[in-house]
Amino acid sequence: MISIKNILNPTALKIQAMKSKSVATGPFGVIVHKEITDHIRSWRFAILIALIVLTFIAAMYVSLTNIKSAIGNAKDPDHLFLYLKLLTTTDNSIPPFHVFLSFLAPLLGISLGFDAINSEQNSGTLARLMAQPIYRDNLLLAKFVSALVMVSSLFLALALLMIGSGLILTGVRMEPQELLRILGFIVITIAYVAFWLSLSIMLSILFKQAATSALTAIGIWLFFTIFYQIIINLVIKSFLPDPAYLTPAEIISYNDLILNLQRIAPNQLYSDTVTTLLMPSIRSLGPVTMEQMAGAIPAPLPFKESVMLVWPQVSGLMASTVGCFALAYYFFMRREIRS
Amino acid sequence: MKDSIIQLNGLTKNYGSRKAVDDLTLDVYKGEIFGLLGPNGAGKTTTILMMLGLTDPTSGTAFVCGYNATSSPIKVKKKVGYMPDSVGFYDNMTALENLVYIGRLNGLPENELKTRSAEVLEIVGLTADSDKKTAAFSRGMKQRLGLADVLIKNPDVIILDEPTLGIDPTGVREFLALIRQLSRQQGLTVLLSSHHLHHVQQVCDRVGIFVNGKLLAQGNVGALSSQVFDTDSYVTTIRIAQPIQRPWLLEPTLQAWEAINQITINKNELEFTCNHDVTASLVRFLVEKGYDVIGVNQKNYGLDDIYQKYFESNSTENTSYEK
User: Fold this and answer.
1) How far is A74 from A33, CA to CA, in rounded Å?
2) Measured in Å, how far apart are chain A's first and last C-alpha atoms?
């Protein structure tokens, strides 16, 4: 950033220019630059963009055709948030965009990362790259950052396009809160992609064959989206006593147990978070007793409160991303590079 | 004393219980071409990886250009160009783009990149192909591009792992001539590993023979052969027109020669093992005694024999272990 102070002070400006130059020519910048070029030129990314854009258009089309009834629904406390409604309204023919994303984002992350290291190793470029005076973590971080830059620009562009076209089509003024919520939704989505990206980069280090690491990553994704809930239900059912004989407190504790187990799955964390962000009237992600509900007016929460509500989920998501990346780092740093 | 630019001291690498490199101590001097010769799986690549800090030694140290390769690999990699045995390039990029990328990673200034890349491509003779995608490159071209890739960073030392693998004979000759020329012109130190004896023999100043993780011998080819075959390193075989009857009357006379250690008679072939070259006097002697000499063959020990000898001793060692 060049501030006014810097303009008044030419030496500071010069120093800053030198700094930015050295950053641009540093090995990390060079690798990121090259990786982004590769992504842009690759068919893979083109297909993924097409997939996401198509989903986005379909979801927007459905929500636009139903927006009138959604806005007119006075019983819904959120009915005045036009732009949030654009993202969440559906007539049940297809799921809304954020639910779509909870399926597509893992695919995006996995496909951008599953061959990050092993394809370089198999083509013999990794040994050559590692013989250059660069730190190993630079390579790993560059792979991660470059994919994330691509994904971030994609989602940011989509969100801004949606807001812009919404403004033109409806002419309705946007609440600052709505902008914050939509940006929050984008940030969480990027973090969710980042989790799958770091997981797949880790797998690409562990497995020599790109196909193996892709399959493993997809396996993990399928396990969490489909089988995990089934397994939890089976396990809980096996030792859950008949609810008729339980006190309300016990029922709640069992319920909490189930919820907490479900929250191990990253997709659960993601969908909890984005639903809360996009639907301001959501007040709790767990069971709520009648006493707690008594006297509550069904009204949208302020942005800050919604964020507070999902903060554990957000930090859980970030923690698992960082955890996967740290593992990738651990596996990669001291490994022997042979072609 | 010449300055050694690569110093390996007691370098050892274990993979589980297997010793890939066993207590290797080696000096490579500035400006020389050193050949690391050994069969597949002898630990050549592992040694090279340890020199570059790409793998950690179990014990011992590797100093390259004065830096410890294990603790400060970045400094070593700034000075050393390394070409791995199956060098690969980014297929979707052209030869020039591949080079420029490596140049950038080495921190070459942006305005010098293009000229420097063109220069090294000229050196390895790939100027005409610089805008071709490397996916279309043949093995030999990739090998030459690999050399360009090594040269672009202006290294002090270049390490080539099996550089002649999979190139046709003409390509090998050209490639080795190129390496020799570069080493002589620019004072580069070259360390190359190979299992091709003849290639190494053509180009290297000194050779180290490396079997099962151990450096068995080092020195120039001549010194190696005397090291291996000790005093009996001159063998002269003389073929005579008529078969020799035994006992041969002249044998005691010849035995009395100081130079001759052993005489083997095989029909019409006489094999003399001597401690120095007496071929000429032997032939003169036999002709004077009325023998018709039809062939004289002086056996010179090349790397092949040296190598063979090591393998023999090595394989007998192995079998004795098995017993």
Assistant:
1) 50
2) 43
> Across chain B, where does the E strand assignment appear?
4-15, 18-29, 33-37, 59-64, 67-68, 80-83, 157-161, 189-194, 206-211, 214-219, 234-240, 260-266, 269-274, 293-299
SS3 string of A173-217?
Answer: CCCHHHHHHHHHHHHHHHHHHHHHHHHHHHHHHHCCCHHHHHHHH
B161 and B190 Cβ atoms separated by less than 8 Å: no
- DSSP assignment, residue A114? T
Residue pair B265/B247 in contact by the 8 Å Cβ criterion: no
Q: Which amino acid is at A28?
A: F
**Chain A: residues touching B (Cβ < 8 Å):** 25-27, 30-31, 34, 38, 41, 123-125, 127-135, 334, 336-339
ipTM more than 0.95?
no
Show the DSSP H helices in B22-163 as ranges.
44-51, 73-79, 95-105, 110-124, 139-151
Min Cα distance B315 → chain A (Å) is 28
The owner of tokens 């083509």 is A123
Of B232, B191, B244, B206, the C-alpha closest to B64 is B191
Residues in a beta bridge with B83: B160
Structure tokens at B82: 């390394």
Digit-by-digit pLDDT tens for chain A (339 residues) are: 444 444 444 444 444 444 444 444 688 999 999 999 999 999 999 999 999 999 999 988 888 888 888 888 888 888 888 888 888 888 888 888 888 888 889 999 999 999 999 999 998 899 899 999 998 889 999 999 999 999 999 999 999 998 898 888 888 888 888 899 999 999 999 999 999 999 999 999 999 999 999 999 999 999 998 899 899 989 888 888 887 888 888 888 888 888 888 888 999 999 999 999 988 888 777 777 777 777 777 778 888 888 888 999 999 999 999 999 999 999 998 787 776
Structure tokens at A101: 């994303």
CA A70 to CA A85: how far, in whole Å? 7
Beta strands in A62-216 (DSSP E): none
The residue count of chain A comes to 339
| Burial per residue of B89-111, b for 16 or more beta-carbon CB atoms within 10 angstroms, e otherwise | bbeebbbbbbbbbbbbbbbbeee
Instruction: Flag if A124 and B82 touch (Cβ within 8 Å).
Output: no
Q: Which residues of B touch A21 (CB under 8 A)?
A: none
Determine if residue B238 is left, alpha or beta; phi over 0 gives left, psi from -120 to 50 gives alpha, anything else beta: beta
In this complex, the residue of B49, B88, B102 whose CB is nearest that of residue A124 is B88
What's the Cα-to-Cα distance from B62 to each of A266, B49, B189, rounded to whole Å?
46, 10, 16
Give every CB contact of residue A67 below 8 A, 6+ residues apart in sequence.
A82, A85, A86, A89
- CA nearest to A83, candidates A151, A155, A183: A183
pTM higher than the cut 0.95:
no
Predicted local distance difference test score (pLDDT) of residue A2: 44
Pair B25, B11: CB distance under 8 Å: yes
